[in-house]
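Q: What would this complex look like in 3D?
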Amino acid sequence: MIRWNKAWMMGGAGLVGLLAASSGFAAETAAVAVAQTATPWWLWAVALFVTSFLLGIVAVLGGVGGGVLFVPIVGGFFFPFHLDFVRGAGLMVALAGALAAGPGLLKSGMANLRLAMPLALIASSSAIVGAMIGLALPTNVVQTSLGVTILGIVILMWSAKKSERPDVPKADSISSALQIHGVFFDASRNQEIDWKVHRTLGGMIMFIVIGIMAGMFGLGAGWANVPVLNLLMGAPLKVSVATSKFMLSIVDTSAAWVYMNKGAVLALISVPSILGIMLGSLVGVRLLRRANASVVRKVVLGMLLLAGSRALMKGLGF
Amino acid sequence: MAEYKFDPKYASEEQLAYAHALDIGWKIGFGLMVIFFGLYVFGILTPHVSMEDLARYWTLPANEYLHAVHGPTGWGWTALVDKGDYINLVGIAVLAGITILCFMRVLPMFLKKGEKIYSAIIVVEIMVLILAASGILGGGGH
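A: Here is my prediction, written as structure tokens for the whole assembly.
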């Protein structure tokens, strides 16, 4: 176990260092703009696949969605693609992952359709608005907002507590009317857990904001969904994580269409990214038992901190 | 009707039906995406935008890129599905369209149970997703 932890620490530090070192390269790349033809196209596709593969591993181990790592890192370092295409690919990455995970989560009862549907309706409507805003705003404004958002996510992930089974004394009137409650089998405790939610109206309002941000930045939104479902509405952590993942398949669908219709989904960027992240996630799941979650989480936070700072600096013209 | 394990204690009948439709749909979309990407990158189908032009213009914002390569917006890409690059959007469109089909699959089940609120939520959700997919919001404008 100690050997694995050391390996992760070294690997993580290496990855963070690599990202930092690449800042100069990325700046040069941006300066070349349209004249960028020196590197063959296939090399970019391979590099994108490898990067996404590594991000897929780290995302699973760090307990975050692929999109939240993909957009700031691919958009901020190494790659010459315009942020529009990176966000389009980021949405497809988040969408594909959610679609693949959805059936299993629903069948097991960990994700809950009744909990997801009202919130997803609000978030998916907002995501359309977010996507349209994101594609209409100047790149530097989006880049700056992305940087601020990523840094906000770092603070949220660093400080937010999680509650395995929040105390919900009484279901509120909205969740009662919508019959949002359930029971799932917690294999780690070998027991059935009954759950209900409260503060549904507050949760619905929060999902307006979450939807706009998901559509605007192509990030996916698990980082925001889970705290709202778990800490605000009082759903058990496992139900929150699973329902959040499933909800992305609905919310990101609406934003993905807007990006597609605007021509911001390029196959050569999106497909290697999706394949890389999905294969990386499979490897990540296998490594999950051996890796030290807290070490990996710190590496993820370090990567996000660097990527968020980089996006902010790019947006502000540094 | 497809067969699947039904345990109403953990997952409702509608939830399982949704899961089953999603399971089939994402696999079809993913498979198509992989096949079409192979046709594209191995040069079996000629792309609308050459790889060299693509690498020149992908630094531009989406609207300027489309202008530079004479690319379509909205559903205009369907006229170019014989091209290596745009055929990939078929697989991606399937992935982006599954959710609509999943909701259509469970809508009759909610209606049959007389669940008016959820039936209304599903109808509105389908309309929202169709609106997003239609290109009315995301199409034409640059």
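A: To summarize the key features: The beta strands of chain A are 181-186, 191-196. Chain A touches chain B through 75 residues (CB under 8 Å).
Q: Very helpful, thank you.
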